[in-house]
Structures are given as structure tokens and as C-alpha cells.
Design brief:
The structure is a homotetramer.
Chain A: H1 2-32, H2 39-45, H3 50-56, H4 60-77, H5 88-105, H6 107-117, H7 127-148, H8 158-177, H9 185-200, H10 210-229
Helix pairs in contact in A: 1-2, 1-4, 2-3, 4-6, 5-7, 5-9, 7-8, 8-9
Chain A binds a DNA duplex through residues 6, 9-10, 13-14, 17, 38-40, 48-52, 54-55, 59-60.
DNA sequence: GATGAATGAGACTTCATTCAT
DNA sequence: AATGAATGAAGTCTCATTCAT
């Protein structure tokens, strides 16, 4: 029993150290930025000597990546799904807003993930990549369901739609992270949702509405005239 | 006269030196990559000593950036506009294809611009940024014209459309530059053009307000017919 | 009695520990080589923590040396003498072959003894030195006997003959341990035995010279007397 | 002309530096030994900063090896051949004495060559190896000539004789370098020359001096008989 | 006696930049 | 204007050894 307690006590400080170092790293990163942080800074901040850091982490990059992943994960952890949100458009908006809000909250972290981790070939094996993937997968799934329900056309690959959404998001996020421009969460999320939903909307199936049918007639006429112009 | 000749002689080699160093830098970068290139490599390649480099460039980064800009510029230089291409869709496709082909041709260069220069706050002041901007501007202009002509709706900002296009392009380009996936120039350009044109189309294919769309479209047609009468 | 039992219990595992560590060290050395082996490797292999090693060994070198000595000793242990082998030449050949075969069997071990332990001043106090000495002593003894029997001349010190033999052996062994060349056990043993026995041989081979033949007659007589001595 | 002078002046300090560093290294090695010498020690001794050392040497080992080679070379440089020495025995004695005297003069240097450089696979490509080889080659050549002239038998390979000589020499040298025992240059050189010349002597002559040998042997026998009588 | 985390000195190496010539 | 050697700070990583529990 004593031994068990001892073991527990013996184990705790180690977990504590690891946690201390990671927390110190986070603070140091926030203070000096990823590119300027030195092992010595982190060790000092954690009240540990440089060598100790290497008991817990293979090398500097390993430390940085693991800190980032944990940090990243914490922020993603609480996210719930979109199954209880009604409408494709709203689902997409929700997912986009979630990401944009996260970026706003942790710019330094996102900057590192985007600029340092993603270029690394090893990124694909990281937890951050898995989480990133989960996000894009959620979007893809929403699109897939919209296609299945007939709400979206099926003549374009889901991957393209996904890239339009995340590409645009990242474009804005990059500009923001570089300090080149701010963005409005709702404006961006709504705008993208609008274009995507419009662009992927299935053709109207025709209807009894007289206005709609008149419109359709005129539209057909316009199309013929347009053809003549070409 | 003698002094003038001397000056000329003194000046010419200097231009030559500058050109030599920049060319050498380009070769060195191609050979070792941006992150591994050293001033010493470049100097040796240019048959100059390390110190000389600092007569022409403030520091290493300045050299790298200026080399990149010139390199970038050369590739962009020959690009003609899209005024002689018919149809918004074709114009957009053309601009997108041009970018994608360039990326394919100079991956190392594009990688640096995307990953190293863009994160830098000073990027906004660089020529590379200006050229980048020109590209996006061309796309924006095409969209603006499409809106003016009634082909595109006007209920969403041009900037959003631009970001959807470039964001998606860059998303694909990044994956490619990281070695994570190839892309097909036409497939990407066509796909994006399709979603954007559909999503922005003023035509009443079951859009938000068919009547408004039809009206808009007919108005635009009328305008063009009037143009023909002139 | 209880205390005695406790002591016994306390002592036994300790012997076991020591043996475990030494065995682990041997395995680790075989796997990584003497120069790359770390205390941590050995401790892990022995299922012990680093600190425990220091209960049994003063420091790293002490561990390495003691392991080597035990290892060395085991290999030498079974060696029987040369008293039952007939002829000086055969005795020498046997001793040389024994050494060469050992080197072939345990190159890593011999490399360490030759390169690491021997340079150390403390080597003279080590068991490995004692064993080494025993080997050379056996050779010396054979030579001494050959001198006593009149088979070898006595005008040169035994130590020189010993060094010629071991020096040459080690010369070949070194080349082998450095990977610079193989050797043939019998070729080397036979060759050295030949030169040494010839070079030290007391017998004249007879000739037409009356002096020589008289000498020969006396020599034969001496040989018979020598036989009687045995 | 001014430029030539400038160039010369510009070049000199560099050679000077190299020489300074190498001289400093030699001093530092002499003072602290090869294994304990640090780059910082050498740099300080040469009145240079650590980094400067790396302009002239790839890394620490490169520095050590090159210093050693130059040092080694200087000592070997003045050695003349043996063509003007009469007699195989004298030639061999001369070559052996030369080596033994050198070892006595520069023990630290020889220790490094023997213990550090020789184990390295790259040793075969070093200048020290070439010089070493030259030495052994001289001995081999003497033996070869003795064989050609009929002075030495030809039933054993020259390589074996060479190894007997150098093996024995190194055996003694090692003991000396380890501080385990001194040696007498002449005693060793004479002894080895004696055994080798006897062992390799062609039969026809019945040995160097059969009478002397027989006398010696009978004397030894007489002594033993006298012992028995006691 | 065992544990094993912490220590911390230290060593090597790199390279952008400077500056006397 | 060119040279290019010297600088020297900076930084990562290793590992034998200790010592409180």
C-alpha cells in the first residue's frame, strides 16, 4: 500500500513536469513567438534545466509540435456536431463560424499550424492533421448529405466544394494571421454559404406557380436570344 | 570623357555583379532549396566573395526576396489580359489555368512566396505582392464586369468571390507544394469556374428570387440588344 | 536467525542483479559496440534503472572493464596447457592457434581489450592483463624449456622471442579487427613457428667442414645427454 | 604590382593562421593529451575564436588528424634510405632503430597514431598510413633483396617476416607508450635482427657461426650438468 | 537497496555579418 | 568597390552521475 502510494506520488511529479514544461512552452511561445522561442527560454520558464526538457521531448520540434497539438486539441475538444442544426446552409455556416472564431481566439497557435506544421511532410501523421481532417470531413459530410437529399447537384466532386470552402476560409485566415486584414466572422461564413449553396443548388423542379412558369418562359426566350448573340 | 568612360566602366560591371549574384542565387536555391541556401553558396556560385553580397543586398532575406520577386516577375511578365477572351466563365478559367500552370512550372519559387514571403508583414510592400494582387485584381475585375452586365448577382461582395477562387486554388496548390497531392489544371479550373458561375449566376434557376433574377437578366439582355443597335 | 535469513535474501538478489547487469552489458556491447554503449542502454537491458548500476560499479569504465574481464576469462577458462603436446614447434603452434581462434570468435571483446583497456595504465592491475600474461607466460615457458633442452639457443632473451611471437600475432589481429584484412589461423601460426624455431634453433645441419662434423658429433652426444636429463 | 604585393600580404596571414592553429593544437595536445583537448583550448592557445578553427578544418577530428600527420611527417622527413648501409642485418637494424628512436622522442604523437588513427577505417587513406607503409615497405624491400641474393630463404612470405618485425616492435612500443615498460633501442633492434636473420638464413652456410653456436650449446649443457652434480 | 528524474556542465558546430586591407 | 578571413553569439543536444524518496 505504501509502495502504491509511493508509486503514485512518484508518478505525479513526472506528469506534473511534463505539464509544466508544456505550459511553460505555451507561455514562452505566446511571449516570443514560435520562431524565436529557445529551449532555454522554455526550460527557465518551467523552472527546469535545459537537459530535462530532453527527457520529455525528442528535440525542439517535437516539443513545439506536441505543445501545439495539445493546445489545438483543447480548443477543438468542446465542439459538438451539426446533426441538430437544421438546413445545409446553417450547418455549413456553423462549421465555418466555429473555425473562424477559433482562429480569432488563438492566432499564434493557428499561425504555427498553418505555417510550420503543415509544410512538414510529417504533418499528415500528426494529431493536428487528424483534427483538421475531422473538420473538413464534417463539411464534406454535410455536402454529401445535401447531394443525397437532392438539395445539391451531384455533377461536381465533394472535394472541390470542400476546397472552395476551406480554401476561401484559409485565404481570409492567412490574411488575418499575417496582420493584413481583419474579417467578420458572420460575413465570411454567410457569404461562402450563400455562394456554395447557390452554386450547388439543384435546378428547380418546376412548379405550379404561375409567376414561376411565366418567368421560366421568358427565361427560355432570353436564352434563345442570347444564343443568337454568340 | 575619360571620367565618363570610367564611370561607365565602373557602373557596368556593377550591374553585371548584381545580375550575377541574383542569377547565382536562383541556381543555388533551385539546387538546395530556400531553407538550406547559404550566403556562402550563393557567393561561390556567383564567383564573388561573401562580403560583396552585402554591397548589393541589405541582408540575406533581402537578397532572397528580391531574387524571388524578379523570378516571379519574369514568369508573370508575358501574361496577357483576358479582354479578348469571351465569356466570364472562360475568362476566369483562363486566369486560373495560368496560375496553376505557373505553379507547376516553378514549384520551389511558389513555395517560397507562399510560405516564406507571405507570412512576413513586409510582404504587402513587395513587388511579389503587387503581382499577386494584379492577378487577383484581374479576377475581381472579371467578376465586377459580370456583375455590371447582370450576369452575376450583386448581392455578395466581389472580395468574397475572389477569395473563394484564390482560396480554393491555394488550397490545392499547397497540397501540391507539400507533396501531398497532385492536381489536374483543367479539372480544378473548370470546377471552380462552374461553382462560382452557378453560385453567382443571375439566372433564375430556382434561385433566391426568380422574378428579380429574370428581370435582371432580361434587362441585361436588353442592354446588349441596344448595344447591337448602336 | 531471522536476520541471517534476511541477509541471505537480501544478498542473493544482489548477486543476481550484478550478474544481470553484466550480462546486459555484454549484450548491449555486442549490439552497439563499446564506444556507443550508454549506461542507459545497459540499465534498460538489465531491467534496472541507471542509478542502480552505480551501486555495483564505480563508474562506466569500471563496468566496462569488469564485464570485459569476465567475458575474457570465460573464453580462456577452458584452455588446457601444452604439457601433453610433443615438440616445441607444436606447443608454440597450439598456443598461437588458440589465441587466433579466440580473436575470431570474439572480435568486439578483443578489440576493446586491445584498444581501450591496454592503453590504460590501470590495465596492468586488471584480470585481463593477468590472463594475457598467462598466455604469454605459457609461450615464454615453452621457449625456456626449449633453451634448457638445448633445442633453442640461449644467446637471446626469452622476452624478445615472446615479443616477436605476440607482436606479430597482434599485428595480424589488429589488421583483422580494423577490418583491413583477414588471416588464416594455420598459415600464421605455422609461419611464425617456423621462423622462430629456425631462428632460435641450436642444431647445426652438418656440412663438409671437419670442424662442422666434429661439432655435429659433439652435438649429437649432447642431445643424448640432454634426453637422459629429462 | 601593388595588387600582387597586396595579394601576397593577404595570403600570408592565412597561412600564418593555419600554422598558428596547428602549432597551438600541438601544444594543447602535448599539454592535455589527445583525448582531453577541446576546440576551445586550441582556439584560445592560437588566439583565435572557436569558429575560426572551422575555416581551416572540417571538424575536430580532421584537425587532430592533420596536426598529427604534419607532426609525424616532420619527424620522418629527414630519414634517409638504407642503400648505403652494408649487410641485411645492419639495414634491418637501422630501420628498426630509426622507428624506436622516433617513438621515444614523440610518445604522445605515436600514441595517437597507434590508438586513435589506426583503428579508424579512414586511416588507410591518410598520409600517416602512407608514411607508415613506407617504413614497412623499406623493411620488406630489404628482405626481398636478401631473398633475391640467396641470403634469405624463400619458403616463407615476406609479409610474415615484415609482421614479425613490426609486430614485435609495436609490442614493445605499446608497452612503452602505456608506461608499462621501457625498452633499450639497441637491444630490441639487435635481438629482432638476430632472430630474423637466423630464422631466414639460407641453409647452405650452416648458420652464422656454427662453431660459436655449438660451443654455446655445449657450454649451456655443461652448466646444467654441473648443476646436477651440485 | 532501488529508483529514475533531474541535473548541468560542456562540446561541437553553424553562419550571417563585419571590417581592415 | 571587392575581398574574404575573422568573428562570436547562438543554440542544440548528450549523458554520466547524483540524490531525495
Amino acid at each position: 500500500m505504501a509502495s502504491k502510494a509511493d508509486q503514485d506520488e512518484g508518478t505525479r511529479p513526472q506528469d506534473k513536469r511534463l505539464a509544466d514544461i508544456m505550459a511553460a512552452a505555451r507561455r514562452a511561445i505566446r511571449a516570443k513567438g514560435y520562431e524565436n522561442v529557445r529551449i532555454a527560454d522554455i526550460a527557465k520558464e518551467a523552472d527546469v534545466v535545459d537537459g530535462t526538457v530532453y527527457r520529455y521531448f525528442e528535440n525542439k520540434r517535437d516539443l513545439l509540435v506536441r505543445v501545439t497539438e495539445a493546445w489545438f486539441e483543447e480548443n477543438i475538444a468542446g465542439d459538438s456536431g451539426v446533426s441538430d442544426i437544421a438546413g445545409t446552409r446553417n450547418k455549413l455556416r456553423h462549421l465555418m463560424r466555429r473555425l473562424l472564431i477559433f482562429v480569432r481566439k488563438e492566432p499564434v497557435l493557428n499561425r504555427f499550424v498553418l505555417m510550420e506544421m503543415r509544410p512538414d511532410p510529417a504533418f499528415r501523421a500528426s494529431r493536428a492533421f487528424a483534427m483538421n481532417r475531422r473538420m473538413t470531413e464534417e463539411v464534406s459530410e454535410v455536402c454529401r448529405q445535401a447531394m443525397a437529399s437532392g438539395e445539391f447537384r451531384t455533377d461536381l466532386p465533394v472535394a472541390l466544394v470542400r476546397d472552395l470552402i476551406f480554401g476561401c476560409l484559409e485565404h481570409r485566415i492567412w490574411a488575418f494571421l499575417r496582420g493584413e486584414g481583419d474579417f467578420d466572422v458572420d460575413e465570411v461564413a454567410d457569404g461562402i454559404a450563400t455562394v456554395i449553396c447557390r452554386g450547388m443548388a439543384a435546378r428547380s423542379h418546376g412548379g405550379a406557380d404561375p409567376l414561376a412558369s411565366a418567368t421560366q418562359r421568358l427565361t427560355a426566350l432570353a436564352a434563345r436570344l442570347e444564343d443568337l448573340e454568340r
